[in-house]
Write a structure and sequence with these properties.
alpha/beta; eight-stranded mixed beta sheet; five-stranded antiparallel beta sheet
Length: about 425
């Protein structure tokens, strides 16, 4: 049996008064997800271990079966893998957003939804003025980029900008973890490595200097939305991960399909082929049909596909209720529908799972640490009593409440 996970990033939500007290999944028109829930089995999954923030790097790799205590190193190294940047043993890699500040607060975490070619100009500009033997900026996708600090110390506290909309940025500057201000990370092995305080000071200096530089760049002079500060976070060293092929005998080959560097990086470390789809943006205007087609093509040849859609998460961070509803409906009509209608005709059965990685409620505008609903369908599965797919109905699902890596183990037991 083949397996595919269709993941709507941040798709889960809370009950919203504007929707008559329904969640977005309850309110949206999702006939195919509801049909699969009715024909299949459902449940809920906790994707964030105790002691970890509800980030997509944690949630997605947990869904794939990785124990965070063994593999977690932050977003930066995963995005480096996706970009194809080969980290040296003494590199400290951080996710580096280009964000928009206004009146002393973080207006948004994406610089007005930068295009990659726009951001590339800004990254080269920053490298020319701030890059050196210790510091390097690397272009990623849209507003999501990479900052590599040779000899940097990962024991610093960096605030994810999407978790702090409309908050004063000066209160969120980098600081060393408790007990690490004057310590070097000897396990990291850098001959001229920095202490936690030295690393925090360096990152804060880069943030402040980037604001001065970006304020006078012609791009920001010509544009209403300003991409006027870097914001580094999610740092770590090169992780050590087993591939999915090593973890699960059912998987010999597989693919990861996403517009997001972070997810592509997880895919690379997991031993999956990373498929890039033309027109895949990570937003509501992404190429849904192209991603569905790429998933079917990969699944026809391989055992496993991880198909990731980012749009719902971005709409949640922006607090855009109507847009998030559309992204959920797009996923149902333009991803789940064509994939189900095709694989149901195949001779070799396919097990389909649909789920988010974490909730990104539109009225909170950030990730929250709550269980997510999931469904599993394949030919011959014994249905449970759940008739529709949403956060409330799946509480009654036959799988109950699963924790962390148990979902992937259960999913791989099928076939």
């Amino acid at each position: 049996m083949k397996h595919i996970i269709i993941l709507g990033d941040g798709m889960a939500d809370h009950a919203v008064d504007r929707l008559g007290g329904k969640t977005l999944l309850q309110y949206a028109d999702t006939p195919y997800m509801d049909m699969l829930a009715r024909k299949g089995r459902t449940g809920r999954l906790t994707t964030i271990p105790e002691g970890y923030l509800p980030g997509s790097e944690v949630a997605n790799s947990t869904i794939l079966g990785y124990d965070q205590d063994k593999v977690y190193e932050g977003r930066g190294p995963l995005e480096a893998a996706s970009i194809g940047y080969d980290l040296h043993p003494d590199d400290f890699a951080l996710r580096c957003n280009i964000i928009e500040l206004e009146d002393g607060v973080i207006k948004n975490h994406h610089g007005g939804h930068l295009k990659t070619e726009e951001a590339d100009v800004l990254l080269h500009y920053l490298n020319d003025h701030l890059g050196n033997e210790r510091v390097r900026f690397v272009t990623g996708i849209q507003y999501r980029h990479l900052l590599v600090v040779r000899g940097g110390n990962k024991h610093v506290v960096c605030a994810p900008p999407h978790d702090h909309p409309n908050e004063p940025w000066a209160d969120l500057m980098v600081k060393p973890e408790e007990g690490w201000a004057d310590r070097k990370d000897l396990s990291h092995g850098a001959a001229d490595g920095l202490t936690g305080q030295q690393t925090a000071d360096l990152l804060n200096d880069l943030i402040l200097k980037s604001q001065q530089l970006l304020a006078v760049h012609p791009f920001n002079q010509q544009r209403a939305a300003k991409a006027n500060s870097i914001w580094p976070w999610g740092g770590g060293y090169r992780p050590s991960m087993q591939t999915l092929q090593q973890l699960y005998p059912q998987i010999h080959t597989g693919s990861c399909i996403s517009a997001v560097d972070l997810i592509r990086g997880i895919g690379r470390y997991a031993g999956l082929d990373v498929v890039k789809v033309p027109g895949a943006t990570g937003l509501a205007d992404t190429n849904y049909e192209g991603k569905a087609s790429a998933a079917l093509k990969a699944l026809a040849q391989q055992d496993f596909v991880f198909l990731h859609l980012e749009a719902s998460d971005e709409a949640g961070h922006d607090g855009d209720l109507q847009l998030k509803l559309r992204t959920i409906e797009y996923l149902d009509h333009r991803i789940v529908e064509p994939i189900y209608n095709e694989v149901k005709k195949w001779d070799e059965p396919v097990s389909i799972a649909v789920m988010p990685d974490h909730p990104t409620p539109v009225e909170v505008r950030t990730h929250v640490k709550e269980p997510v609903p999931f469904l599993v369908w394949h030919r011959g599965i014994e249905p449970d009593e759940v008739q529709v797919y949403d956060e409330v109905s799946c509480v009654e699902g036959a799988y109950g409440l699963l924790h962390l890596t148990k979902f992937m183990r259960k999913f791989m037991e099928i076939g």
